Fold:
Amino acid sequence: MKVFKDAVREELVTRILSELLVDQNQYGWRSSQACWNKELRKGIVGNTNALRIEGELFDELFTELQPHLPGAKEVVMQLYVWGPLSGIAMHNDWFHAWGATLYLNKTWDPDYGGLFIWRDRESQELRVQLPEYATLVLNDNREYHMVTPVSTCAEDDRVTIQIWGK
Structure:
């Protein structure tokens, strides 16, 4: 796992959120409860909404993140909104060459849950990354990872951009 702090400009994050995070009832949003397989939802009762990022926003974000990302034939980006009790069970993104998470919340208290946990491939130890604004976590070694459930006491939804390369 590789961690890159300040991976994107604040202006770009603000633009992404203002353009995409307006109405989760609009066409194009997908629900984890409806779309994720049973293994990814193991022990998870909450819902994560996802919206594919395309066009000009995709191009601008990809250009900014490209120095940190491995090469790929195809790259997919989705805005994820992790609601109360949402998370994802341990998995390794087996369908992708690599995966990455970009954190968009300005602040995040550890008591809110939503912690990114991974099993280090070499030591087999569990490691934890607190969601930290504009930080990119890159999994280019197919390490097993998960997100703990977001607490019902979280003041805001957990917001990320998920990126996969094929």
User: Anything to note?
Assistant: The first helix runs from residue 10 to 20. The longest strand covers residues 75-82. The mean pLDDT is 95. Residues 28 and 51 are 6 Å apart (CA to CA).
